[in-house]
Amino acid sequence: MTPTITVFERSPDGGKGLARDMRVRWALEEIGQPYDVRLVSFAAMKQPAHLALHPFGQIPTYEEGDLALFESGAIVLHLAERHAGLLPGDANARARAIAWMFAAVNTVEPPILELVTVRILEGDKPWAGERLPLVLDRIRNRLQQLSARLGDADWLDRAFSAGDLMMVHALLRLRPSGVLDEFPTLAAYVARGEARPAYKRAFAAQLAVATGAA
Ligand SMILES: N[C@@H](CCC(=O)N[C@@H](CS)C(=O)NCC(=O)O)C(=O)O
């Protein structure tokens, strides 16, 4: 059965691949699973039909037969558990890869999202100038720790896994700020992710939506 995912009809990033459907597209490409895409507008995301799929009125969602899922991490985990290629066979290595997925969304991504909040949503507040360096410090602290753990390895726990997929995508959001490049180990890690053929196919597919070529 071909699954269907929802994505922005008009992504605010104009096709830079930062929206979270990119994680799901990338996972689907890694496992070689074809998929359909349903474009949703911001208005449609807040309507009952979409809210029935996603209680918070966001993208991405994933539908496969009777199953409807939201949360990019849950969708990627679902795919990784049912198809070869995104989680190791060894039970302990598998558990560690899943831990990295959680680390990406629960430990590394939150301060990165705060940067977007302080710069864009709160940029006009009188205290934004004071808050920005605090947020940047929290990000740099996390990146320092992550960089130290990665060391000179290609991936977080030997072979590429769903943990790397989630982590690379969380880090990508930092690139425009220049902070990622302060950590050459992590910048190279992200570049390795982007160089994967599956990433490139996923990126091209989301770009085609943004440029109207899809
Ligand atoms: N934790 C959720 C976050 C989903 C999310 O924030 N989606 C954004 C796009 S990347 C969205 O739909 N934003 C529009 C909105 O919140 O109205 C996930 O990982 O799927």
What's the quick description here?
The protein is of the alpha+beta class and 214 residues long. Helices cover 57% and strands 8% of the residues.
What does this structure look like?
- The structure is a single chain.
- Helices cover about 55% and strands about 10% of the residues.
- With about 210 residues, the chain is α+β, with helices and mostly antiparallel strands.
- It has a 4-stranded mixed β-sheet.
- The longest helix has about 30 residues, at about 90-120.
- The structure holds glutathione.
- The site of glutathione has 10 residues, from α4.
- Overall pLDDT confidence: 97
What string, H for helix and E for strand, traces the elements in order?
EHEHHEEHHHHHH
Count of DSSP E strands?
4
Distinct ligands, ions and cofactors found in the model = glutathione
- List the quaternary state of the chains: single chain
- Overall geometry comes to globular
Gap between N and C termini: 22 Å
Residues in helix, %? 55-70%
For the largest beta-sheet, the strand count, sense and barrel status come to: 4 strands, mixed
How many DSSP helices? 9
Q: Describe the strand arrangement of the main beta sheet, using strand numbers.
A: 2-1-3-4
Strand content: 5-15%
Task: Give the arrangement of secondary structure elements.
Layout (H helix, E strand, L loop, with lengths): L3 E5 L12 H11 L4 E5 L1 H4 L2 H4 L9 E4 L2 E4 L1 H11 L8 H31 L6 H23 L11 H11 L11 H11 L2 H15 L3
Parallel strand pairs: 1-2
Antiparallel strand pairs: 1-3, 3-4
Helix pairs in contact: 1-4, 1-7, 1-9, 5-6, 5-7, 7-8
The protein binds glutathione.
